[in-house]
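Technical annex, item 7. During the second reporting period the consortium partners agreed on a shared format for inverse folding records so that results from different sites could be compared directly. Each record opens with the tokenized structure and is followed by the designed sequence. A conforming record, contributed by the partner at site C, is shown below for reference.
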């Protein structure tokens, strides 16, 4: 569908997690009228549970990213500096302090070589550290200096407020139950009412299964549980995120050290297991001995919306006028600004996102 000639396109978004709110932000900026339907509270979902890292360099090197994914991550990183201006960097704890990946044993040192080689191939800025920061205990390390982080617990409410201030409607505790074609529009039925829109974006994370009759691509979404903990701050101020093979640590601006994360494919419960939390803590302490003895302030679990090939599902859905912003997996915070722009391009200009992200890779359309 191409709405270029339409004066004000009316768009509904099912899901007010970071993907849905990012789409809302981009569409409002281009003059669309936007309504976000959120089953729970906006700006929570997996964002609330996440590590808040914007680690595009590290993630692409670690995952040996395809060119399309590396470009999406690069665009996400670049747009984050605009978002930080829009939302207020200090208000969301945004900073670019780099990621440091440490290693001590042979396997770890080999891993650093692989990261460096892939970063070189993907043209990702990195450097081998000759001197490690004093707080890190390791034999060697690589730095991805352009990676950053934010406080995801601050970002969620701030982004929802921004969308409202920009004229978006966010209807919380409103579950989209049915999607159907109605002439050249899409009918959205909720537990409250039914309305027609020019286009609808599905940004339902792992929870949109009820809408599968309208959108088969939802069946490709698989949950990947992640458990995390935080330790008491303030104290040692970590200017960077630490990304080791067995744990990561990001210190938020209120002093909390956030440590993650397990990766449990197929699990969608949010039960926290003491053994997993203790292992994460021990691993983090081996790299950052300054963490020893600190009180655990919280432990929690969240669910990443994964896909069989770990790539997002972006672009047109099965019904005319329905679009998909799904499967952001373990990088939804990083990717959200770029996903919002791609979805706005797809709906308002008819420019499809890269074919690598199309639902057709799982389903013949
Ligand atoms: C432990 C953990 C650590 C992570 N760390 C990072 C990190 O450091 N950096 C990073 O970039 N990413 C990270 N991620 C990934 C990131 O959090 C996710 O990719 C991202 O939050 C997914 O956002 P989403 O909006 O697609 O889905 P969700 O957050 O799941 O949001 C979907 C929303 O849709 C709503 N919804 C569902 N169905 C309906 C319906 N029918 N009607 C109305 N509303 C509906 C849900 O209530 C929910 O609020 C992490 C994730 C986890 C779990």
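Designed sequence (site C submission):
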């Amino acid at each position: 569908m191409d709405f270029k000639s339409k004066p004000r396109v009316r768009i509904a978004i099912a899901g007010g997690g970071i993907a849905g709110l990012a789409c809302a932000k981009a569409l409002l900026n281009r003059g669309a009228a936007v309504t976000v339907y959120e089953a729970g509270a906006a700006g929570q979902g997996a964002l609330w549970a996440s590590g808040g890292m914007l680690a595009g360099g590290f993630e692409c090197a670690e995952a040996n990213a395809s060119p399309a994914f590396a470009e999406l991550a690069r665009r996400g990183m670049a747009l984050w500096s605009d978002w930080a201006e829009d939302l207020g960097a200090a208000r969301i704890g945004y900073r670019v302090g780099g990621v440091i990946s440490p290693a001590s044993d042979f396997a770890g040192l080999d891993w650093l070589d692989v990261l460096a080689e892939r970063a070189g191939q993907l043209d990702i800025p990195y450097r081998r550290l000759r001197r490690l920061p004093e707080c890190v205990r390791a034999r060697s390390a690589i730095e991805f200096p352009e990676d950053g982080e934010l406080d995801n617990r601050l970002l969620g409410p701030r982004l929802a407020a921004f969308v409202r201030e920009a004229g978006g409607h966010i209807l919380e505790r409103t579950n989209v139950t049915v999607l159907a074609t109605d002439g050249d529009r899409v009918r959205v039925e909720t537990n409250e009412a039914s309305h027609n829109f020019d286009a609808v974006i599905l940004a339902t994370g792992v929870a949109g299964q009820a809408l599968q009759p309208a959108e088969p691509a939802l069946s490709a979404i698989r949950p990947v549980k992640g458990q995390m903990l935080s330790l008491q701050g303030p104290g040692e101020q970590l200017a960077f995120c630490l990304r080791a093979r067995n744990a990561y640590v990001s210190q938020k601006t209120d002093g909390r050290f956030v440590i993650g994360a397990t990766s449990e494919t197929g699990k969608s419960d949010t039960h926290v297991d003491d053994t997993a939390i203790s292992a994460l803590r021990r691993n983090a302490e081996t790299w950052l001995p300054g963490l020893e003895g600190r009180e655990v302030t919280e432990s929690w679990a969240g669910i990443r919306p994964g896909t069989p090939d770990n790539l997002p599902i972006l672009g047109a859905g099965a019904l005319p006028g329905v679009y998909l912003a799904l499967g952001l997996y373990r990088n939804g915070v990083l990717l959200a600004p770029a996903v919002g722009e791609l979805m706005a391009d797809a709906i308002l200009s008819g420019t499809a996102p890269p074919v690598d992200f199309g639902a057709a890779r799982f389903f013949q359309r």
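Residues 67-87 form the longest helix (21 residues). The mean pLDDT is 96. All partners now use this format for quarterly exchanges.
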